[in-house]
Amino acid sequence: MGLTLAEKILKAHTVDGVFEKGREIGLKIDQTLTQDATGTMAYIEFEAMGIGQVKTERSVAYIDHNTLQSGFENADDHRFIASVAKKHGIYYSRPGNGICHQVHLERFGAPGKTLIGSDSHTPTGGGIGMIAIGAGGLDVAVAMGGGAYYITYPKIVNVRLTGKLSPWVSAKDVILKLLSLLSVKGGVGKIIEYTGEGVGTLSVPERATITNMGAELGATTSIFPSDERTRAFLKAEGREDVWIPLSADADAVYDEEVDIDLSSLEPMAACPHSPDNVKSLGEINAEAGGRMKIDQVCIGSCTNSSLADMLKVAYILDGKTVHPDVSLAVSPGSKQVLTMMAQNGALEKILAAGARVLESACGPCIGMGQSPNSAGISLRTFNRNFEGRSGTKDARVYLVSPEVAAASAVAGYLCDPRALGDMPAFVLPEQFAVNDNMITPPADPKDADGIEILRGPNIKEYPKTAPLADHLRAECSLKVGDNITTDHIMPAGAKILPLRSNIPAISKHCFAVCDESFPERALALGQSIVVGGSNYGQGSSREHAALAPLYLGVKAVIVKSFARIHRQNLLNAGILPLEFVDEADYDAVSQGDILAVEDLRDQVSAGGPIVVKNLTKGKSFETRCELSERMRAILLCGGHSTTPRQI
Ligand code: MIC
Ligand code: SF4
Questions:
Q1: Alpha-carbon distance 410 to 328, whole Å?
Q2: Which of 17, 226, 257, 596 is the least buried, fewest Cβ under 10 Å from its Cβ?
Q3: d(CA 611, CA 609)
Q4: 269-415 is classed CATH 1.20.1560.10
């Protein structure tokens, strides 16, 4: 039986476990990446392992998230990460060089390789045929130390692309279509593999937009074949030598099939507050009484900030002025993109139209500035529109393509770019403006001992964990609903992100979006349990969404279902992740109920259902905690953090 492309790469990298569907497999990781908002913790964890030089083929530390330096904290973190990188064999991409996923695609990604990154949009690398997976910082630290990265052998979904995108319809519309079909939990436990003759019509940046936002499906990762278009992209980057052709076997067997005819797609938008709340522009305008007036447009982020995107934006803005009621921000994805825009005149057109050009970084996407006005309507080319993420609690964020964003910025309302008429061919240069002067190579290993790690006063230790107790008796300190994101659990934004290296301080903001009194209540209780609905923990890879609850004494989280990375982060932190066997039992638990689990260690070891008693209601219910032998051992001893050398 033939293999899918994803299976070929997974098989070639399986170093532990049995290569069978549904079983846990340990993967050899060729490359890692970190960014600064998750990186400090990851490197604190890496340092605790006592390993000298990283054992990967290539590890890169990017500075792209915490670039607004309104205090010493972010700059201190950058300095810390730079010093760790220099000492331990890690390449360091300096602030200003660009967003990790964009730069990694340009400068380091290679078909057939495995990559894990402490950021959920690491699957961007699937655009050039990598198996690129988002993970918690601790898992990335283990991989840097040469340890395997464990996943459950996923289901493989074949998304067959036929036809060709119509003018002004974009790669963003392909992934929005898929989100409308599969939803934000439709990809959990799955790899999305793209096949079919439509693949060849898409350039690498377009493919990367699609694999990037596969994260919003909850998928383990997404992948495109490596073909002549991949080769042309790598050649333009001066890296043709890493190109290899890769595709699925003709007789590959997939678990699910989805057909998308590219020619049938139209421009769409994901409406507030979820990336799968997808509607056509016509529907949205009709709901708004004809035309939806807008306040802000932001173009950029790791989803849509390539040169190809910026060329389209420049063309649409050429000779026009941004509507007087609209603020337009543009953040090119990398120094390379910005340089080429400066060289070919695209930047001048964008500036002349009145755009506010920002540095090449995550910026508004993570609430680092550019928060919209009160109840403002913001069109963004980003990948997430969760409530409050923009920094304005009552803002309404719509996710759109760069084409829709630019056309609307000029019109002042949500606008269909197809009204622009004929679309010129946007041709990418054969040679990109390669200049790696902002990527600092590590020191020679023989000089590593002499390199001092520069630790600022805001950088605190990893919180303490403890072996799993025999009995648990604790109050339900918070009950939340379905699709709770890590932006709910541990919000980001310009005010909170500088606390990423200081768990006691950042914990004060835990669950602030849902209930501002939670941190105080949880601390006062000493230990407690959180109850939630389905797809709990969707969104980012931030392990802070597990470490803050750990610090606040959360011992277990009981939900209908978990998102993959967050569940793993809870396990790594020694917090028990339980799922209701019968989802109806969710309704029978109230905040304030006292819950108890007896013989917890024995029940976890036995691997069967775990019985939770609701002492307040006088009822019991069953939960499940499916774990491999390896993970069970880790959980029993209190999570990965107490066993950092166990790799
Ligand atoms: C995000 O887009 O939510 C982030 C910020 O990039 C996160 C990582 C983080 O919280 O630092 C992610 O996607 O993993
Ligand atoms: Fe940065 Fe936004 Fe991409 Fe996250 S989604 S890596 S914040 S650009």
A1: 9
A2: 257
A3: 6
A4: no
pLDDT along the chain (647 residues), means of 10: 96 97 96 98 94 97 97 98 98 98 98 98 99 98 97 98 98 98 97 98 98 98 98 98 98 98 98 98 98 98 98 98 98 98 98 98 97 98 97 97 98 97 95 98 97 96 90 98 97 96 97 96 98 98 97 98 97 97 98 98 96 98 96 92 43
* Ligand number with the minimum distance to the CA of 540: 1
Residue in this structure with the two tokens 């072996």, named with its chain if needed: 467
CA 75 to the chain's CA centroid:
23
Query: Which pLDDT belongs to residue 641?
Result: 57
Domains 5-264 and 269-415 are alike in CATH topology: yes
pLDDT in tens, 370-404: 999 999 999 999 999 999 999 999 999 999 999 99
Active-site residue flag, 93: no
Residue type, 562: F
Beta bridge partners of 622: 611
* Pocket flag, ligand 2, residue 156 (CB < 6 Å): no
Distance CA 431, CA 411 (A): 34
Q: Of 30, 36, 76, 119, which residue is the catalytic one?
A: 119
Given 3-state DSSP classes, what are the helix, strand and coil percentages for the chain, each rounded to the nearest 5?
35, 20, 45
Q: Which residues pair with 34 in a beta bridge?
A: 61
Q: Topology of 472-636 in CATH? A: Aconitase; domain 4 (3.20.19)
CA of 538 to the centre of ligand 2 (A): 15
pLDDT recorded at residue 366: 97
Active-site pick, 65, 101, 455, 566? 65
| Cα distances (Å, whole numbers) of residue 475 to 66, 157, 581 | 36, 41, 20
What residue segments make up the domains of the chain, in order of their start?
Answer: 5-264, 269-415, 472-636
Quick one: DSSP state of residue 201? G
542 is catalytic: yes
Q: Residue 1: its pLDDT value, please?
A: 84
Overall pTM > 0.90: yes
Distance 12 CA to ligand 2 centre (A): 30
CA of 536 to the centre of ligand 1 (A): 16
CB atoms within 10 A of CB 602: 10
User: Quick one: angle between helices 137-144 and 36-48, nearest 10?
Assistant: 50
Annotation says 540 is catalytic: yes
Is 460 in a helix, a strand, or coil?
coil
Q: pLDDT value at position 644?
A: 42
Interaxial angle between packed helices 137-144 and 564-572, expressed in degrees from 0 to 180 and rounded to the nearest 10: 70
| CB-based contacts of 382, cutoff 8 Å, min separation 6 | 298, 300, 301, 303, 304, 364, 365, 397, 399
- Which CATH superfamily does the domain covering 5-264 fall into? Aconitase, domain 3 (3.30.499.10)
Determine the pLDDT at residue 647. Answer: 37
* Cα 431 to middle of ligand 2, angstroms: 27
Give residue for tokens 């930047």.
347
Cβ partners under 8 Å of residue 304, min gap 6: 172, 209, 381, 382, 401, 402
Identify whether the C-beta of residue 506 lies closer than 8 Å to the C-beta of residue 496.
yes
Question: What would the two tokens of residue 474 be?
Answer: 């604790």
Give the pLDDT of residue 197. 98
Rounded Cα distance between 397 and 386, Å, is 8
Note the ligand closest to the C-alpha atom of 119.
1
